[in-house]
Amino acid sequence: MGPIPLCVLLPVMVLTAVVAVTAEENTIDDQYTWPQWKVPLVRKRHTVPLSSPSFAAHPQPELSGTCGIECQRHIPSPSLNDLEQFLSYETVYENGTRTYTSVSVHGLNEVTVWPRNTSSRSRHKREVYGTDTRFTIADKQYSTKYPFSTSVKISTGCSGVLVSPKHVLTAAHCIHDGKDYLDGVQKLRVGILKEKSRRGKGGRGKGGKERGKRRKGDKVKEEGLEMEENGGRGERKGRGKGKKIRSRRSVDSGKPSFKWTRVKKTQIPKGWFKGVSDGLTADYDYAVLELKRAPKVNHMDLGVIPSVKKLPAGRIHFSGFDDDRPGNLVYRFCSVSEESNDLLYQYCDAKPGSSGSGVYIRLKEPGKKKWKRKIIGVFSGHQWVDVNGDGMQQDYNVAVRITPLKYAQICYWVHGDSSECQVA
């Protein structure tokens, strides 16, 4: 066979190079795209009535006894029967009645393999250390707009996030201490940020002309905050020289107030209760509240991500109502330092009151160029963790991650129909 003519070889070389470049671009693009998960089905078996709770528990400033990454290595993997027990749940209604619902799990073997625990070596104080990197979102221009408007305040002193028009995701310990429901849960309310009325004060109501134009300084702060909230990437174009990347100061132009809504019912997984899941209790520190009335604000969808550390930025975001900044929404972002199957260990500065906040990231929708934020976890708070299983306690800021199983359960609580929850 003779030499291949250049007129034939050249197009082949060009085609090979184009395919290689396209494959590389697709690989990079996949890193910024929400993965599609086939999730198991969580179905109700039967529901039985229980006696009314005492509502006598008191909030704990810090959780302790959490079994950490290395500690959990010594615990056998839960069986299907164990998981069905952990995912069975209690429901408390606004009239004080309570029920217990057992569930069955189907299609667990069809779910893509979830990553194994990764080892953790560094230990640092993770509440607020060094320079405080939190943003106070005191300006109503930001706090009452998406994504910050999805953050809500729970009347027991925690935070939460809207995951549907009428459902709030929060931490289980904000509702229940593992033995009993907290004092105040029988009259549980959720506070939605709203703008104060501007009637009679130059606002849009009667008796005054609109004065709602933004000042130049506000625009700079908004752009800097949006840049950080997007992880340094996004659709913003044309950032000029001299503009600030971020600002921790906010303009207090019309501090927002809360519109409170009663909670219709509360649902908590049985895995959170003492003596049920043993060292895995922290993995089930989440609850869903159904509101009596849907607030007129957007919600944020749930998402499932196999590894946060392997994302290009490895960064998470969440907003809550920290106790040391009363009445203000506080936003922060940070990188995840370690992660297990069910928990995220991170360095985000946080104070009590932020527990229950929705932890989210921002990726592209499959097949589209549009970016979308989704909740991938619930901030549990500052915890003392048994790292090695030897009883020695180390402190962390911990978030409970949304796994395919938890996605299936929460989705079922929200929709009441597991057939709507087959793909995350």
UniProtKB/TrEMBL annotation:
Pfam families: Trypsin. InterPro entries: Glutamyl_endopeptidase, Peptidase_S1_PA, Peptidase_S1_PA_chymotrypsin, Trypsin_dom, TRYPSIN_HIS. SUPFAM superfamilies: Trypsin-like serine proteases (SSF50494). It is found in: Secreted. The keyword Signal applies. Residues 196-218, 238-248 have a biased composition (Basic residues). Coiled coil: none annotated. This is Inactive serine protease 35. It comes from Poecilia formosa.
